[in-house]
Amino acid sequence: MSKSISAAVYETHGNPADVLRVELRPWPTPAVDEAVVKMSAAPINPADLNQIEGKYPVRPELPATPGFEGAGIVVELGSGVKNLTSGALVILPHNVGTWRDAVVVKAEELVVVPEGIEPVQAAMLKINPLTAWRLLHDYVDLQKGDWLIQNAANSAAGRDVIQIAHELGYKTVNVVRRAELVDELRAEGGDVVLVDGDSLRKEVKSTTGGASIRLGLNSVGGDSALRLANCLAPGGTLVSFGAMSLQPLKIPTGLLIFKDLRFRGIWINKWYDKATRSERMKAFRPLFDMAQRGLLKTRIEKAYPLSDVKAAVAHAAQSKRSGKIIFEFE
After folding, report:
1. Phi, psi angle pair for 180, to nearest 5°
2. C-beta separation of 242 from 156 below 8 A
3. Marked catalytic residue, from 10, 56, 139, 272
């Protein structure tokens, strides 16, 4: 094994393509209760870019290595590690910085991935699919046949919501900004796919037969979130987990008084930190099951080696991509 690794590093906050560089570090050595994981793949998520820019609620000590998500192979075990074998494919916790060739992690924080899931897909199961799973379980008690509505339905998390809801027997209204996405999302299992606009509420009513929609999922904010809220039934809940438009939620008082709507938010890292190991595994098991059947596949637009970190983050910052930008490791 090589005696050094490459790691992406930033020493100051700023534009990711400007402040990131790659440096050589010594090969990590595991403590008694730790394992060394050789990275297979790590995606570039919006939260990663936000953290490098200094716009994320959690700021690591600088210099820091980014990367909230990733998967790799266990290559070395500390002398006290039980229940983990060398060669296992594992998902990493979100606080280790995955944009590096290898990383040392407490063994109990690793989630072992079952056979039949590609490392590249395993690397992207922890944030978007897990967020989608929690969105569909933690806010409104949905029954088979119930409807929900979401904006940015073509995002990675939006596509996961479509597939998981379909699996659970819920029906989805999926709001997008581009007409060319309609057929694509219908093919993935979206029951209704509509282009966002001022007549959204009327279109939702006619396409769902006036169904009572008690759950809305918002990752855009601004006017789009308000149009979603207007489609909800009295007592409904709008859960926000992103702000792609960078616009705040502006909720007219009438929606609170006359419809008694609830406004909630989810930050999956917070849920993950609070969850017990068995709660995490209870959520991962159905996701693993779906992934083994070829579902929850995140589209990838381009894979970069870590040495091209500047080009990779610049690419990831572009809008209108057809999929994720990821790092693939040797």
Report:
1. -70, -10
2. no
3. 56
10 catalytically annotated: no
Domain boundaries, given as residue ranges, for the chain = 4-124+298-328, 129-268
Query: The domain 129-268: what is its CATH number?
Result: 3.40.50.720
Amino acid at 71: A
Note the pLDDT of residue 2: 54
Give the model confidence (pLDDT) of 80-131 as tens digits.
999 999 999 999 999 999 999 999 999 999 999 999 999 999 999 999 999 9
Is it true that domain 4-124+298-328 has CATH number 3.90.180.10? yes
List of the chain residues with pLDDT < 50: none
Burial class (CB in 10 A: 0-12, 13-18, 19+), 329: buried
Phi, psi (deg, nearest 5) at residue 74:
-70, 125
